[in-house]
Design goal:
271 residues; Rossmann fold; six-stranded parallel β-sheet; 46% helix; globular
Length: 271
């Protein structure tokens, strides 16, 4: 990758929990490419993670915020602008959690209070994150919002449960805000549909290890790593992607366009 693609740009990166998090890798890559940014996560998530280590490595500050609470997000923007010395150029939404999935509730027997939490945390927070910036006018013209998603938004992966609904909603929000924010401030909004990735959150989905191997064999390029996803995010934050908006961008080694792979067929024939 070219050097200093993000020189002079200021951002906010959500969701870095530990060294396995895609958001953690994004922060490191953004630092390498010359950006300054703040980090944020929910207070409860921060107690479980090692985000202070990342902040020290990147020479930045953490501003705790509950992404489902508009007042927290407005404070996050104001504090970040004050700390960074100017309006924001890019924001990463890397937030997702399903109480139903965590507690083993199948899609056919959801707890609806938990379902509403899934949608609010994993998708509604993206709308709130963008709307707060829009109302406060704290993102520069040509800025870039990126949300991380997964192909279960478009196709059935039974063990992904109600998170699939949340990811579908997330992608719809990117299209809606991509139009409105694009018309008013030329701000871009996109989602990146990443391969199954060995993060703390991803590994919590039932049967993850088996599916990770299956996807790797199905994809002509293999599964995209967290590091590669971070590189893609840097590109989407940079001016090189200035005309890309309202898109759900597959970053999955080709998995999304595959029907079947010979390796999979041969495995079943052998059995």
């Amino acid at each position: 990758m070219a050097n200093q693609l993000l020189a002079g740009k200021r951002g906010i990166i959500t969701g870095a929990l530990d060294e396995n998090s895609i958001a953690w890798k994004v922060a490191q890559k953004c630092k390498e490419q010359g950006a300054t940014f703040t980090l944020t996560n929910a207070p409860v998530a921060m107690r479980m993670g090692a985000i202070n280590k990342l902040a020290e490595e990147c020479g930045t500050k953490i501003f705790p915020a509950d992404a489902t609470v508009v007042e927290d997000l407005e404070k996050l923007y104001k504090d970040s602008v004050d700390y960074l010395g100017g309006k924001i150029d890019f924001v990463l939404h890397s937030i997702g959690m399903s109480p139903n999935v965590r507690k083993g509730k199948p899609y056919t027997d959801l707890n609806y209070d938990w379902y509403n939490k899934t949608l609010d945390i994993s998708a509604g927070s993206f709308h709130k994150l963008i709307q707060s910036a829009h109302k406060l006018d704290l993102v520069n013209e040509g800025g870039s919002f990126v949300g991380l998603t997964y192909i279960a938004s478009q196709r059935i992966f039974p063990d992904y449960g109600d998170m699939a609904d949340a990811k579908s909603m997330l992608e719809s929000i990117a299209r809606g805000w991509g139009y409105h924010y694009g018309k008013s401030h030329k701000v871009r909004v996109n989602t990146i549909s990443q391969s199954p990735t060995k993060t703390t959150a991803g590994s919590g989905v039932g049967g993850f290890d088996a599916f990770y191997t299956y996807a790797d064999q199905m994809s002509p390029l293999g599964n995209a790593s967290a590091d590669a996803c971070a590189d893609y995010c840097v590109f989407m934050f940079s001016d090189l992607s200035r005309m890309i908006t309202m898109q759900n961008l597959y970053h999955d080694g080709g998995f999304s366009n595959m029907g079947i792979a010979p390796q999979i067929v041969e495995k079943f024939i052998a059995e």
